[in-house]
Amino acid sequence: MTGALPSVDELLDGAVVVAMPMRVRFRGITEREVLLLRGPAGWGEFGPFPEYGDDEAAHWLHSAIEAAWQGPLPARRSRIPVNATVPAIGPERVPEILARFPGARTAKVKVAEPGQDLDQDLARVRAVREHVPNVRIDANGGWTVDEAVRALAALSADAPLEYAEQPCASVPELVEVRRRLPQVRIAADESIRRAEDPMRVVRAGGADVAVVKVAPLGGVRRLVALAGELSGHGVEVVVSSALDSAVGIATGLAAAAALPELPYACGLGTGGFFTADVATLPGMSDGALDVVDVSPEPAMLDAVRAAPDRVRWWHDRVRRCHSVLAWRGV
Ligand SMILES: O=C(O)CCC(=O)c1ccccc1C(=O)O
Ligand SMILES: [Mg+2]
């Protein structure tokens, strides 16, 4: 924060915890819980995944406070190109998924799902290529180096991949895949958003592209600063969601709008994965979303309010993460 850290009482006064049901299983979850904060500049979203520890989750709280107490940076554009996100579903469900992303010319396809094999990935990617010209894949670190080299060669045999996101889990593995397959661009996601030092993967030569997410990086201002540093290393960024509610998506759109360059479609189209959200954003058209201010709709909030024990759990987490931020002096 450039401003003072608000007190816990200020944070929790007006906070709402929601549980948004999902249409498709994603990252192994079928319901997404987040806490929404209300401050003088608007709303902010605090939604670190449940298994994250407090040190990591504190970045997400920093981001929520920044959004609600400081608001966005000046926008350089009003429309953000967005990719379709295709979960690890069977090829027969691809048309139904793509229909939620009207006009998208880029699709990101999840691969390397635990319990699935390369043939399933190939079938899914082939089905997507029938509808969308530009395809990237995301393995969420699920492959070894040898598996990644084999899978990426097979997945790019018919047509190039735009890039391969986090084919392996560790930085040395990404460096090795990049060395062995110089024709496939590698994007780092977890190696940036879950790293102590997000520049490490880039300095090591493990990434051509960086996936940047507002909340894990600690807010729009830090994201824009990191993008500047990355661009000094010749690495371009893709702004993506962390499976955010409409409040978090609006913050992601604001971050994408503030960047000097936006060469890739952003992964901000995940709102359609929820059967209920906290606000209705203008729909995707012609493969893009409008940059808008958003406030939760009271009736929509009421429909997704979390149970009292979950509210207590999230309030305790805010208290602990607030202590982390106070201790760090931010
Ligand atoms: O990038 C996208 O297209 C959507 C966002 C996405 O895939 C995602 C959403 C929540 C958690 C992890 C991820 C991921 O990129 O791995
Ligand atoms: Mg990813």
Automatic annotation (TrEMBL):
Enzyme class: lyase
Keyword set, alphabetical order: Lyase
Enzyme nomenclature, EC number: 4.2.1.113
Domain of life: Bacteria
Name of this chain's protein: O-succinylbenzoate synthase
Source lineage: Bacteria, Bacillati, Actinomycetota, Actinomycetes, Mycobacteriales
